[in-house]
Amino acid sequence: MCEVRTETRYFNKAVCLVCGHQDKVYHSSKEEYQEVTVCPKCNGAFVDAWELGKYEKHINKHKECEHKYQVLDSETISLYADEGRTSQEVSATFYCEKCLDIRCKKRRIEKWE
Questions:
Q1: Does the reported pTM lie above 0.85?
Q2: Could you tell me the domains of the chain?
Q3: What's phi and psi for 20, nearest 5 deg?
Q4: Of 5, 23, 2, which is closest to residue 14 (Cα–Cα)?
Q5: Furthest-apart CA pair in the chain: how many Å?
Q6: By CB atoms within 10 Å of each CB, which of 61, 70, 86, 93 scores lowest?
Q7: Do 102 and 88 touch, CB atoms closer than 8 A?
Q8: Do residues 44 and 52 lie in contact, with contact meaning Cβ atoms separated by under 8 Å?
Q9: pLDDT in tens, 27-59
Q10: Distance (Å, rounded) from C-alpha 71 to C-alpha 105?
Q11: What mean pLDDT value characterizes the chain?
């Protein structure tokens, strides 16, 4: 009688970030899966192609963002007044509503009266 093998093998396609080598990486179980392994050709980073695509899509989405910043926090760092002149140093933190990019700015504001 014929014997049937029911062994399940899992695999994912991986791409090397250094040399561009592509290949299937086989695993005996789902628990054995690793997102990043070592490239067999150059010892570079051998990354799961699906995860890499997801990361590139995320980066490209935020790269094309037309930032719409809102003030998150602001504070006066220092304030000087001398004979009709005031000098104020202000620090502010902004965030983009779309991609959550955070920026910090420091400004000096001088006024003459």
A1: no
A2: 10-63 (2.20.28), 69-112 (no CATH)
A3: 85, 5
A4: 23
A5: 105
A6: 70
A7: no
A8: no
A9: 788 888 888 888 889 888 888 988 888 887 776
A10: 11
A11: 82
Higher pLDDT: 3 or 23? It is: 23
104 with 91: CB under 8 angstroms? yes
Cα dihedral 11, 12, 16, 21 sign: positive
Tokens of 76: 């006066």
pLDDT at 36: 86
Q: Please, what's the b/e burial string for 64-86 (b: 16 or more CB within 10 A of its CB; e: otherwise)?
A: eeeeebeeeeeeeeeeeeeeeee
Q: How far apart are CA 108 and CA 13, in angstroms?
A: 53
Three-state SS for 82?
strand
Quote the CA–CA distance of 42 and 14 in Å, as a whole number.
Answer: 14
20 pLDDT band (50/70/90 cuts)? confident
